[in-house]
Structure formats: C-alpha cells, structure tokens
C-alpha cells in the first residue's frame, strides 16, 4: 500500500525527479507537435490525390458499358453474358453504341469525325479500343481412354505453358496472328487464371460502320473457338473538365467448364498531376513530406546508435521503422510513376489511330495509391504512442498488453476449430454453394456467419443432413462459446486494470495535464489570464484528498491529516522552525489505522512550549 507521506506533504516529489519528468513530458510534447504537423501534411497530400469525381466517372462509365441491355433482349447485358452468342450480341450492340458518339442528340455534328469520339459528349476516347484474345493448345490435357472414341480434343485451363501461339483461322490480319507479349505490361489476375500479355490482337476503327463490319466478319469466321480462354476489351478516356483519365478493361473468361465469366476494371486516375494552383499546393506538401522523412530517419538512426539492441525491444520502435519503410516505398513509387508518365504520355497521345496503352500507367498509379493508403493508416495508429499518457488510453493499452498471452492462447484454440469447420464446409458444400466454392471463400463465409450474414437455405439445400448440423454446431461453439470466452478475457483484464488505477497504480503523469498547465502558463505570461495560485492549491488539495480516498484512507483519517497539516503550516509561519521538518516522519496508512499518530501530538506540544 502506498504511504500517506506523499499526500501529507502536499504531493511534492523530489526536485530532481520532478525535473526529469517535466523534461520527458516536454520532449513528448515537442515530438507530438512535430508529428501532428507531419500527419496534417500527409492528410492534405493523400486527399489531394483523390476527389469525388473519380467515383462518379467510374459510375457513369460502368452504367454505360455494363448495364446497357442488348437490343431485343432486356435481360442480357455484359454482366449477364453466359454464351458466345450473347458475347457477340454485346460487341455489336451496347459496346458499339457506347464507344461511338458521333453527333449531338439532335443529330447535329459537333466536331470533326477525324478526332476521337466523345462519350457522353465530355469524355474523349484516346486512340482506338483494342480487343485481345488468349488461347490454349489442343491436347493440353489427357482424355480418359474409355472416352477417347467420343472426344479426341482436349483444351486445358489457361497457363503460360499451355498457351497457343500458332496462327489460326484466316491467318491474314493481326487478329489471326499471334503477337508477342510486352514485358512492361502487367499480367492480369482473373477468376480462373492469371493471364499474360500478347495474344491475338486487333484494334477498332474510327468509323462505327467499319467496326461493326469487323465484328460481323470475326463472328462469321469463328474467331472465338474452343481454345479461347479469355478476351480483353481495353480503351481509355480523358475528361478535361475534371482532369481525369478513365482506363477501362472489360474481361470475358472462357473456363474449361464452358460458359463465360465476366469481370471489369474501371480506373479513374489523375495522371497530369500539376495543372491547377491547388495541385502546386499538393506539390509543396510532397516536398515537405520528404523533409519530414529525412528528419524522422535521422532521429531513428540516432536512437538505434544510442540504444543499440534495446531499441528493438519496443513495439513502437518497430512501428516507427515500418512507417519509415512505407514512406520510402511511397516516395519511390511516386518518382517511378512520374518518370513513366513523363516518358510515355506524349508518345501515347501522338498517334490517335493506334491503341493508347494507359493501363500500364494506371496499374502503377493504383499501386502508389494503395501504398499511400497503408502509410497513412499506420501513421494514424502511431498517435497511440503519444496519447497513451492519457489515463483512458493508458488503461486501454495496459489491458491489451496484459491479456496478450491469454488472447494468443485463445486464438490458437479458436482458429483450430474455425479452420476445421472451414474445411468441412468447403468439402461438403463447395460444389453447390458459391460461398464455399473455395477454401478461402469458406473462411470468409464463416466470418460472415459470425456477423449474422449467412445463406442457410443454400447450405441446407446442398446437404439436408450435414448442412443443419454444420450450421448449428458452428453457431454454438464459435459464436456462443468461443466469442464469449474472448469477451470474458478482455472484460476480466479490464476490470483488473481499472481496479489497479483506482488504488493509485497508474502512470505518474498525464500528457493532458501538462498541456493544460502549459496553456495556462502561456496565458498568464501574456497577461490574458490572472494567476490562480489559491485555486491551484485548492485543486491540489482536492486531488490529494481524492488520491488518499483511492488508497484506502477513510474520511476521519483524511480530516485528521488535513488538520495536522494546517497546524504544521501555522507553526512554520510563526516560528520559522526547521526542527519540525527535520523531526517530521512520514505517516503510513497502517500507522493511521493503529492510532500511532500520537508522535505528532508530542512534536506539536514541544513546538508550542517553545
């Protein structure tokens, strides 16, 4: 139990210790102020990269090319394509109509047809669209001997080793001849395969009628065959009103099972970075970000040199290193993207009769945006390092640190049961229910079940016996038992921490109090606020009394100590005697309870006789 002497003597710690604490708090405040400036700068930088127009541009383009129905069949659009016939209907219908906007709604020509099409009259089509196909060779898989008489051809799923690079069909135009892949362009990760570049490629014409004739010719000559595994439709737009590029990719995968699986990508990016005055403000924030990065790197290098191996024992130091690494990666991505845009953008815009491959630029820009998003996430998390000096946040961090071992042990038990159920669901329902079609989907489906989002009807229909058994037992063991055990661990630890704080086992100082005190001192020096020494003493007295109550003293003991303190102050003021301080002995809580405070009465009587 803490001694009462600290409260009895007015709570004044030793001067040296008090000075060290003030220096530590002052250093923390300086670091916090500097870090807040860095965080504000980073927020301005990141928010300057995006704007709401990106969402609306993606939305209007996706509505045009994905939701527009095929003429004569309102139920068929790009999202609902399931056969080769539906695919050609889309190519000759919604795609053709969406790409070519030659006139105003009054049929008045708005611009020279030699220029690019203007989709929705505002978005310039850069160059011409490109259509690309990837195929696999025949006999890339083995037919079982009993069925060889029925089926002699076998086309496996797409891999780079199975890809067919030989010419086929008419073998005249580029769409019938294989084009080697470009090493600089990224591969595409689809639903049923990872596809590289190259393939059988053709570009569309500036004329709508020529493009339609091209589609009809390809359809009649069977450009899509059993060996076709994927078709990409790529084109790019630019909206000068909002200075945004929209890079669009429509993908139709032809799996080995038959049918078609469609997917799409709409990337609205700002490739021309510095156009308006606001853009130059963002540029200044980027320069400031680099300066902060150099300063923080120097500070961490000095800490490592000073503390050596002890530096790596703190979690906050590891977070600092992670944040620095992410910042350097973000700067590297930014420099690389700007260099590539500077080198390629002008060449891409020179020839409007060719396909302009902006997908490469958009790909790396999206990666840069992702790195920045992760960086600012950890930058916000780092604030906990500073606000942990606050009582509430200190309780939170102490609770998490104390129950860490229990949570790790619980997590092992939880994931053993969780993965067991995931494998059971995948094996039993994987061929029937989309949520369990892969092991990864089964894991995510179980997390959704815990949150209350589940498809019980699909599970029951897939297996009428194991389905309900799986669902009921999973809900019972995971939801009712394990999750409540997890909450019990957190609650019990928090109760212990709160009890410790209530009896005085808490940090010796709080950052908020120091900030408040510094503000008051500044206002007093500027003569904007009168000194309130009496009120501070009164507040200190109230704080000390409250601390004594937390340490277990009853009201009679607190009142006796207060009266004794008043007598001591009066005697010191009247006689200026140092013997009282020299003879003064701390009074512990046990001494108060045992009634051994008579020694103070003796001292007081001696002083009075003097």
From TrEMBL:
Keywords: Coiled coil, Glycoprotein, Ion channel, Ion transport, Membrane, Transmembrane, Transmembrane helix, Transport. GO terms for molecular function: calcium channel activity; calcium ion binding. One of its GO terms (biological process) is detection of mechanical stimulus. It is a multi-pass membrane protein. Exhibits a lower single conductance but no spontaneous channel activity. May function as a regulator of calcium channels or a channel component involving Ca2(+) homeostasis. Residues 273-497 form the Polycystin cation channel PKD1/PKD2 domain. It comes from Puma concolor. PANTHER family: POLYCYSTIN FAMILY MEMBER, POLYCYSTIN-2-LIKE PROTEIN 2. It comes from the Eukaryota. GO terms for cellular component: membrane. The chain crosses the membrane at residues 32-51, 278-297, 318-345, 365-387, 407-429, 469-490. Belongs to the polycystin family. Interacts with TRPC1 and TRPC5. This is Polycystin-2-like protein 2.
